[in-house]
Amino acid sequence: MKKVEAIIRKTKFDDVKEALHEAGIEFFSFWEVRGVGKATEARIYRGIKYDTSSIERILITIYMRDQFLDPTIKAIMKAANTGSIGDGKIFVSELQDAYRIRTGEQGDKSLYIEE
């Protein structure tokens, strides 16, 4: 089992969400987050341009069976890419175990996607 975390541009969220559904990912969690990186975003308020180093992004977390890893990574990479600095990052971690509270299922059987 794998855990995939992707930090993407807010403007690319709908594209990534659609690509994940097409790749067979039926469930994921996401949060609006802020971060600091090389990219900056200019904001204009009452005609005055402000430069901020705090950048708004979306953090997507997906737990999956191993066979869904490659299609998931490819879907995120393709849908989130603009070719500019600040497109984001993807992190992959190994999951030790998982449990479905309602049924007591353990391991990859507890994940949403049926085999």
Structural class: alpha+beta
End-to-end distance, in Å? Answer: 13 Å
Spatially, the strands of the biggest sheet line up as 2-3-1-4
What summary fits the major beta sheet?
4 strands, antiparallel
CATH class: Alpha Beta
Task: Give me the Rg, rounded.
Answer: 17 Å
Q: Got a strand count?
A: 4
Q: Assess the beta-strand content as a share of residues.
A: 35-45%
Q: What is the chain-wise order of helices and strands?
A: EHEEHE
Mean of all residue-level pLDDT scores: 89
Low-confidence stretches: none
- Shape by Cα distribution: elongated
Number of helical runs?
A: 2
Tally of separate domains:
1
CATH T-level fold name: Alpha-Beta Plaits
CATH architecture: 2-Layer Sandwich
Write the layout of secondary structure elements.
Layout: E1 2-9, H1 13-22, E2 29-45, E3 48-64, H2 69-80, E4 88-94
Antiparallel strand pairs: 1-3, 1-4, 2-3
Helix pairs in contact: 1-2
Quick synopsis:
By secondary structure, the chain is of the alpha+beta class. The protein has two helices and four strands; from the N terminus they run E-H-E-E-H-E.
How would you characterize this protein structure?
With 115 residues, the protein is of the alpha+beta class. It has a single domain (2-110), classed as Alpha-Beta Plaits. Helices cover 19% and strands 43% of the residues. The chain contains two helices and four strands; from the N terminus they run βαββαβ. The chain has helices spanning 13-22, 69-80; strands at residues 2-9, 29-45, 48-64, 88-94. Helix 1 packs antiparallel against helix 2 (69-80). The two termini are 13 Å apart.
